[in-house]
Design a protein that fits this description.
Mean pLDDT: 87
Distance between the termini: 54 Å
Shape: elongated
Strand content: 25-35%
Structural class: alpha+beta
Helix content: 25-40%
Number of helices: 7
Oligomer: single chain
Length: about 375
């Protein structure tokens, strides 16, 4: 005689709840899946065509991304006035290429004359202090003078040497050569103008000074930059930025320019985009600094994905859909859009190899779907 298994009241209630939840989920899933019946005659009349799905392992490029050509701060130098004075010559203009060491600005300054006079006086004072110290060291050795007097003389010699070295260092920083410094120390030559040279080879980008104008200390005169390599600053949507990393390939639409990603910033701007910096290869791309361009970044495969023609995509209800062929017609399925170009896209979702998706007549299927889904 079989006996029915007795289930305690609490467990019985839990089982009933689980069964109800499972049935509700199944019903909801069935309600979400809509099959659009399409006969062979309708298919022909609507011009519906399909392609076969096959999983893709190839990288795909992003769609058009706004970008502009830039350089990094390390490629730029500002030539500033080391002294207050008068600009007597400008030997380079914006857009002109200059070589490192070439004179680009000539500055006349009273402070330059004062600095040279200070070095000459410090050199004379040092020679005198050395002579006095040498004589008194000899007198101390003979016991003629007290040691305390020699200590004071040594202190004055150290002060004279420190002043001389400071004056010499000041003029060295202003660009005077060793030969010019030696001539100033001897009082043989005094420079009335200071030649400022280009610290790097590059192109003059800005000119802030004019001939005949007076400038103050540290006033910017010229800005020079090396334009090799050029960089791209690309604005990337947040959802794509997470899949971009160092060394991914970049190209500029309509040009031969190619490059690689170097940095992906960690912050998001007001437009909800992330700035990606890419260094361009040093080739004749024809790009110019500050030029606005369209960039494409090569995206690596994101797990299992399918490459489909762009015209197969349908955007509705805040999602991206494909119409997948089933036995009775077609079924809309939501997919995740990973990346896209003008003619194809990479998607992920509930798809299988060998299935067929509509690539023509998609608008008619969308209209049929929206009609079927209305209450």
């Amino acid at each position: 005689m079989n006996r029915a298994t007795r289930i305690p009241g609490g467990r019985r209630a839990a089982c009933l709840i689980a069964i109800c939840v499972g049935l509700a989920g199944a019903l909801a899933s069935a309600a979400d899946r809509i099959e659009l019946p399409v006969s062979a005659a309708q298919r022909k009349a609507l011009g519906i065509e399909t392609v076969t799905l096959a999983a893709s392992t190839e990288a795909i490029e992003t769609t058009d991304l706004p970008a502009h050509v830039s350089i990094v701060p390390a490629q730029q130098r500002v030539i500033a006035a080391p002294l207050a004075g008068l600009v007597s010559e400008l030997r380079a203009v914006p857009g002109e290429r200059v070589e490192a060491g070439a004179t680009v600005v000539v500055l006349k300054s009273e402070e330059l004359l004062d600095a040279q006079r200070g070095l000459h006086e410090a050199a004379v004072e040092l020679r005198l202090a050395e002579q006095v110290a040498q004589r008194e060291e000899a007198l101390l050795a003979e016991g003629i003078i007290a040691e305390a007097r020699v200590h004071a003389t040594r202190a004055r010699l150290a002060q004279s040497r420190a002043r001389y070295q400071a004056q010499r260092a000041t003029l060295h920083l202003l660009g005077l050569s060793a030969g010019q410094l030696a001539a100033v120390e001897r009082g043989e030559r005094v420079l009335d103008a200071l030649s400022l040279t280009a610290p790097i080879s590059g192109t003059v980008l800005e000119q802030q000074a004019v001939v005949g104008g007076r400038v103050t200390v540290a006033a910017p005169l010229l800005r020079i930059a090396s334009l090799q390599p050029l960089w791209l600053e690309i604005q990337v949507p947040v959802n794509l930025a997470a899949r971009i990393g160092k060394d991914q390939a970049v190209r500029v639409a309509g040009t031969a320019a190619r490059g690689t990603v170097q940095y992906v910033e960690r912050t998001v701007d007001a437009a909800q985009t992330v700035r990606v910096r890419a260094r361009l290869d040093q080739t004749g791309s024809g790009l110019r600094l500050n030029q606005s361009v369209v960039a494409h970044i090569e995206m690596p495969p994101a797990g299992r994905q399918w490459a489909v023609p762009h015209k197969a995509l349908v955007h509705a209800r805040g999602k991206t859909w494909l119409f997948v062929e089933v036995s009775a017609g077609f079924e809309p399925r939501a997919v995740e859009l990973l990346s896209q170009t003008a003619d194809r896209a990479a998607v992920a979702g509930p798809l299988r190899d060998g299935e067929h998706v509509a690539v023509a007549g998609v608008a008619a299927l969308k209209a049929l779907w929206q009609g079927e889904s209305r209450p």
